Amino acid sequence: TFTSSRISSLNRHMKTHTNEKPYTCHLCLKAFRTVTILRNHINTHTGTRPYKCDDCDMAFVTSGERARHRRYKHTHEKPFKCSMCAYASVEASKLKRHIRSHTGERPFQCHLCSYAGKDAYKVKRHMRTHSGERPYECHVCHARFTQRGTMKIHVLQKHGENVPKYQCPHCDTVTARKSDLRVHLLKLHTYEAAEMKCRYCSAVFHERYALIQHQKTHKNEKRFKCEHCSYACKQKRHMAVHVRTHTGEKPFACLSCNRRFQQKQLLNVHVKKYHDTTFVPTVYRCPRCGKGYSRLVSY
DNA sequence: AGATCTTGCGCCCTCTGCTGGATTTAA
DNA sequence: ATTAAATCCAGCAGAGGGCGCAAGATCT
């Protein structure tokens, strides 16, 4: 809907609706509407960049490109302001893209799955998850990656020296990645409404790290205490055996005579002594070291 | 008509942070 | 030896910066 007070402008505007392109590039045969556009186009072939930036050594084909560059790099003027937050941009298209992060609109649909992106690049990058393409290679170990950023972090962590570390403010844990420190804080240093009980005593905690530290203080104690007598031991399995002296339970039966034992070891000794025909009893024992022999010659 | 702004689309880049499987460590 | 939890790590998406290029609009 073009409106103008002058008939000449209207005529000129009407020309934009015709597809007349009389000016042709002799290098690539592309056609253009005006000589100026053609000239700019040829400059892209020849590398001629007449518009130099005053503040750095960049140069551009059009004055508009230079103006935009100066906003980005030097004046930092950002005319496009977001009405919902503090964001401002140099270009209208950037504001438009930004607005989608408020609205959640995702106009760019992947044609292979349900993913949709807020801009075209997201979908393009996403397509690598379908193609399996991994364009970025580590120059040291030649491992390949789907994104450059992932490759860079790999090179830093695996092959770099004086790698940055993330120190936990609450304990001496150090992680290589910031997001892993976040996970650590969440799992170990977050207040839990539910009480967490010590495995060995009645102490109660609301922070996992405190619980674990506390449980370590039990480490060299005989943590397993018999309910029926004063016996205590460091290992759970020892207590299991001990408890049978109170219950009288004898889980191990001899297959030959059906005699029962509290401990497997006791059964083994029994079998060897009474039912193993190849077993030779110790007859001659050395008085100095206690070692036993079946024959006098060996002794 | 030509020159010069202004718009608009496109391409590619970086930084950032979450996730879940693999590996290591401790009980 | 087994197992549970912690840490490592690559995959992958969100958000935004910067430039290339040509068409549209306006000025001279």
What does this structure look like?
This is CCCTC-binding factor. GO terms for molecular function: DNA-binding transcription activator activity, RNA polymerase II-specific; RNA polymerase II cis-regulatory region sequence-specific DNA binding; zinc ion binding. The strands form ten sheets. The chain has a two-stranded antiparallel sheet with strand order 1-2. Strands 3-4 form a two-stranded antiparallel ribbon. It is built from eleven helices and 20 strands. Residues 1-10 have low confidence and may be disordered. It is an alpha+beta fold. It has helices at 7-15, 35-46, 63-75, 92-103, 120-126, 128-131, 148-159, 178-188, 208-216, 236-247, 264-274, and strands at residues 23-24, 31-32, 51-52, 59-60, 80-81, 88-89, 108-109, 116-117, 136-137, 144-145, 166-167, 174-175, 196-197, 204-205, 224-225, 232-233, 252-253, 260-261, 284-285, 292-293. It binds a DNA duplex (27 and 28 nucleotides) through helix 1, helix 2, helix 3, helix 4 and helix 5.
What does the secondary structure layout of this molecule look like, with pairings?
Elements: H1 7-15, E1 23-24, E2 31-32, H2 35-46, E3 51-52, E4 59-60, H3 63-75, E5 80-81, E6 88-89, H4 92-103, E7 108-109, E8 116-117, H5 120-126, H6 128-131, E9 136-137, E10 144-145, H7 148-159, E11 166-167, E12 174-175, H8 178-188, E13 196-197, E14 204-205, H9 208-216, E15 224-225, E16 232-233, H10 236-247, E17 252-253, E18 260-261, H11 264-274, E19 284-285, E20 292-293
Antiparallel strand pairs: 1-2, 3-4, 5-6, 7-8, 9-10, 11-12, 13-14, 15-16, 17-18, 19-20
The structure holds a DNA duplex (27 and 28 nucleotides).
